[in-house]
Amino acid sequence: MHIVFAASECVPFSKTGGLADVVGALPPALAALGHRVTVYLPLYRQTKLADPKPVLQSVTVPFDDRYRFCSVVDGGMHSGVQFYFIDYPPFFDREALYGTSVGDYRDNAERFALYSRAVLEACKIQGVPDVFHCHDWQSALVPVLLRSIYAEDPAFRDVACVFTIHNMGYQGLFPPEILPLLMLPWDLFTITRMEFYGNVNFLKGALVFSDFVTTVSRKYSQEIQTAEYGFGLEGVLHGRAATVTGILNGVDYKEWSPEVDKFTAAHFSPNDLSGKAACKQDLLTQFGITNANLKLPVIGIVSRFAAQKGFDLISQVMDRLAREEMIVVALGAGDKEYQDMFLRLHKQYPQKIAVKVAYDNALAHKIEAGSDMFLMPSRYEPCGLNQIYSLKYGTVPVVRATGGLDDTIENWDPRSGRGTGFKFSEYTGEALLDTMKLALKAYQDREAWQKLMRNGMNKDFSWNASAREYVRVYERARQLRTINAA
Ligand code: ADP
Ligand code: GLC
């Protein structure tokens, strides 16, 4: 099968969050199963290509005010996967991918509409796939275009489209005038298509027009069909529940494993945990915490600073948590509110709570390796990768039981010696605090704690099984397309 991935970020070329990890790792896993996989990405200022070769000099994308001409750059084959980049500097040669701390770029609709249309035009020349696999609102116009203005195009009539929701909280909402500007027909502006409370909703368009919809954990696929987690689109999903499924993200253990990690002070494994102490010492030094008692548990946080991640709970209980014997190290960037919160806490408890406001991949690895626990109290979490990385590093996750966090972490039961972490259900500061205290108490029993660490380290969340599930979904989508196209 030939599968074309359309997504807005991908490791190692561009990244703001877990989407990039997934788009970096799933295509090679599919290629290893014998499929042909091509990935199309925007060419951002941040994207560094070793040997870029322009392959299409001029692809025309019509907008109502004028035509725009972009080019396509060949990024080469990596791990059996072909990469192409849509190059249009006025849109993508910018400081950030989607916006700055001031807010989203105002022309995001135009930016990702140009990208989506250029992908279709490029495929016509470089190879029409059997299946498009699109991700999140930035590539949501691919299915919309396929079934609207490209619907009569024989090149695409039989091509299936699978859409993966990585996060319902980001939908791509724009005023109605965007439709004529993007030369999309007004008949898309109805409640059964893209209209959403008076605006145009890109994500809704993808949920309506894709042959199959997936999301990144089983639990989240159920949650988003409810009002609490559906962000207003629960009805759309519920209406097509037979063609919605959850496939858990895998992780790339070549990048995220304590046995081979390029960024950590030492290596370790379930059979020999001794290297973890050196990682912990190095981590504390990185955060400027000197003379700390290495017996104190270190709690790590690596996150986008966004409301999704449950920082309001941390803010509610941090003063009480700070009375406990522990150290918190946090790495993150995003909403100013949460940056300020951590900076304030650091001022108050300089030897107990340390923060680095930055995007820093090497430090993210050091936190996974050097911490004793990893805190992720998310309000909602489609899958979550950091808690899965933590398991591999013997860094015990403390999480809220939602979405992928619930699917990947099993509660520790000291009596049976089973379980991989600590989880709480209620979204309250009290529940978080009680669970943290339970974890801190469990940490005192060194022998039991090592068992808990090893339980997590021995889990396998590699991509192989999930990649096979995607192949089954692609096949199902192709069958459905044959029926839909007839
Ligand atoms: P999300 O995609 O919602 O941000 P995930 O847990 O799926 O959450 O993935 C987050 C990814 O982004 C992980 O690979 C994590 O290490 C990385 N990450 C998040 N924030 C930072 C940061 N400030 N510096 C470095 N890496 C980060
Ligand atoms: C999203 C989600 C996260 C998920 C990631 C990759 O950004 O917030 O939970 O792991 O996408 O699918």
Shape: globular
Mean pLDDT: 97
| Tally of helical runs | 17
Largest β-sheet summary? 9 strands, mixed
Task: Classify the fold: give the CATH topology of the largest domain.
Answer: Rossmann fold
Strand content: 15-25%
CATH superfamily of the largest domain: Glycogen Phosphorylase B
- Helix and strand content put the structural class at alpha/beta
Radius of gyration: 23 Å
Provide a quick synopsis of the model:
With 486 residues, this protein is of the alpha/beta class. It has 17 helices and 20 strands. It has two domains: 2-250 and 464-485, Glycogen Phosphorylase B (Rossmann fold, 3-Layer(aba) Sandwich); 275-459, Rossmann fold (3-Layer(aba) Sandwich).
Descriptive key words:
binds alpha-D-glucopyranose; 486 residues; 9-stranded mixed β-sheet; 21% strand; 2 domains; binds adenosine-5'-diphosphate; 17 helices; alpha/beta; globular; Rossmann fold
Describe it:
The structure is a single chain. With 486 residues, this protein is of the alpha/beta class. The protein folds into 2 domains: 271 residues, Glycogen Phosphorylase B (Rossmann fold, 3-Layer(aba) Sandwich); 185 residues, 3-Layer(aba) Sandwich (Rossmann fold). Helix content is 36%, strand content 21%. It is built from 17 helices and 20 strands. The protein has a 9-stranded mixed beta sheet, sandwiched between helices. Helix 4 links the parallel strand 8 and strand 9. Helix 4 crosses helix 6, helix 9 packs across helix 12 and helix 10 packs across helix 15. The chain is globular. The mean pLDDT is 97. Bound molecules: adenosine-5'-diphosphate (ADP) and alpha-D-glucopyranose (GLC). Adenosine-5'-diphosphate binds next to helix 1, strand 15, strand 16 and helix 12.
